[in-house]
């Protein structure tokens, strides 16, 4: 049996739709269920719902064989898991944004973000030393209220930035959701996982055409 | 930093309480016995080594080392693995004795953990090193011993995945030309980022045939048939030799009768630069991380001034325990409760039972507040209380 960690929220619906397209018979109550663990005995699968940021943690520890996680989470968490396929769902990107026509403080520029290690890695590769301020949500608030010079956050349509009078300065990296696998499950359950991977890959390449 | 509370331990440090200790002891006994019966001799090395020698030679990342200073100002490390210390001993002393060497160890190693809980910073490793034998017979012996040890330890479902770093290096060198690009691809494998690997390959200006070769490389895992597929991807002597080595090790493992536990996984890269040939990881059902790993490291001994080929494996005792279906039962202890008047009698009874091999506990009844609660924990109890010589019971 395969145990799969699913991210709650935005990615969930697209991920569930993709699994259905790949021919997995998921029960209708799958989508609006409030249960945290959903058994699908017909497919010999078990799903559980987790915070998107935590999916890679469950998979690394091996309590889930597989998981669906955004690349943003993988960049931030650097977990020891296989990043097997790009599911090409929930596309967005990580970007630097701030108030228009502003420059950043030269001495100690402050960057607010939900992704402290990804943001710090980005500025390191640029050769800039910055001070990272970790926030848990509503990152757009930080430059507006004077907490930070810039923010590093995911942007999907750009609407939230615009509505708050912010502009995008740099694009860091494209983000989509990935199928991740625990390294031991990848070996010990290679048949089942191989089948899932080829069914998903088929659907994804069909869509890309 | 907030003031530490008295019960706190450094991150990743763990206590071993009696029931786990018993399981661990039995498991280690079984494993060590098997290693000895294959002719491996156990050695011990100190927990502290110099950073400049063993610390630098070790395969463990620098940031995972516990470092401290001695009085003379030298940086010391708590040994992060046993392979480097054994290489030091072998290079300086033992290799003069006789070649090849078969050594075994069972020792605690230390790796600083920066993340949250769930990872041990101190754990026991048990393993073997074979130094000075470059044949595939040596590799096959090692893997067969590994399988045998795991069976003796009581593991039911486990798997050993084999890769070969020279095959990987050769394939990358042939197709990519530069070491820099090869390093880039190797890092994707090391980080297990197959999506990044594919994207990078697609971004390179290569013929579509070469791109296909690099992409198909990721699928080279499974049974013996994947060696044939591997030989279709590679050209040239060095790559063929690597496949030939895998082939010959596999044939020998068939002769040993352990091939059913073996799978190939050519994209397996357990370390960026340590291994020089065959390498493997060991997985057990129900444990989310490898229970052990090993391979050939022909360049390590050179760092200690005496070049020699070497191969070995290490198993994590804590992960092996997690792989077991059940913990060992604690040994039954017989309890004798005595009062002062019959102390001598009780001591004699205890000595007689111990002589027969029983574990016997002697307890002065005046030292116990709640007799019922105290005796609950023991398999059987006898009482030597009061003046009469007949107050014996169970």
TrEMBL record, chain A:
ATP phosphoribosyltransferase catalytic domain boundaries: 51-201
Principal localisation: cytoplasm
Keyword Cell membrane belongs to the record: no
Catalytic activity: 1-(5-phospho-beta-D-ribosyl)-ATP + diphosphate = 5-phospho-alpha-D-ribose 1-diphosphate + ATP
Annotated InterPro entries: ATP_PRibTrfase_cat (IPR013820), ATP_PRibTrfase_CS (IPR018198), ATP_PRibTrfase_HisG (IPR001348), ATP_PRibTrfase_HisG_short (IPR024893)
First-tier enzyme category under EC: transferase
UniProt KW keywords: Amino-acid biosynthesis, ATP-binding, Cytoplasm, Glycosyltransferase, Histidine biosynthesis, Nucleotide-binding, Transferase
GO biological process, one term: L-histidine biosynthetic process
Annotated pathway: Amino-acid biosynthesis; L-histidine biosynthesis; L-histidine from 5-phospho-alpha-D-ribose 1-diphosphate: step 1/9
Family label: Belongs to the ATP phosphoribosyltransferase family. Short subfamily.
Functional summary from the UniProt entry: Catalyzes the condensation of ATP and 5-phosphoribose 1-diphosphate to form N'-(5'-phosphoribosyl)-ATP (PR-ATP). Has a crucial role in the pathway because the rate of histidine biosynthesis seems to be controlled primarily by regulation of HisG enzymatic activity.
UniProt-listed PANTHER family: ATP PHOSPHORIBOSYLTRANSFERASE (PTHR21403:SF8), ATP PHOSPHORIBOSYLTRANSFERASE ATP-PRTASE (PTHR21403)
Protein name: ATP phosphoribosyltransferase
Gene: hisG
From TrEMBL, chain B:
Any one cellular-component term (Gene Ontology): cytoplasm
Any GO BP annotation: L-histidine biosynthetic process
Record PROSITE patterns: AA_TRNA_LIGASE_II
Recorded superkingdom: Bacteria
UniProt keywords, alphabetically: Amino-acid biosynthesis, Cytoplasm, Glycosyltransferase, Histidine biosynthesis, Transferase
Binding site for L-histidine: 81-83, 111, 125, 129, 274-275
Keyword S-adenosyl-L-methionine: no
Residues in Aminoacyl-transfer RNA synthetases class-II family profile domain copies: 21-324
Protein's cellular compartments: Cytoplasm
Record-linked Pfam families: HisZ-like (PF21996), tRNA-synt_His (PF13393)
InterPro entries in alphabetical order: aa-tRNA-synth_II (IPR006195), aa-tRNA-synth_II/BPL/LPL (IPR045864), HisRS-like_core (IPR041715), HisRS/HisZ (IPR004516), HisZ (IPR004517), HisZ-C (IPR053846)
One annotated GO molecular function: histidine-tRNA ligase activity
Keyword Flavoprotein appears in the UniProt entry: no
Pathway given in the UniProt record: Amino-acid biosynthesis; L-histidine biosynthesis; L-histidine from 5-phospho-alpha-D-ribose 1-diphosphate: step 1/9
Additional information: This function is generally fulfilled by the C-terminal part of HisG, which is missing in some bacteria such as this one.
Similarity comment text for this entry: Belongs to the class-II aminoacyl-tRNA synthetase family. HisZ subfamily.
Main function: Required for the first step of histidine biosynthesis. May allow the feedback regulation of ATP phosphoribosyltransferase activity by histidine.
NCBIfam families recorded: hisZ_biosyn_reg (TIGR00443), PRK12292.2-4 (NF008941)
Assembly with partners or alone: Heteromultimer composed of HisG and HisZ subunits.
Protein name, as recorded: ATP phosphoribosyltransferase regulatory subunit
Gene: hisZ
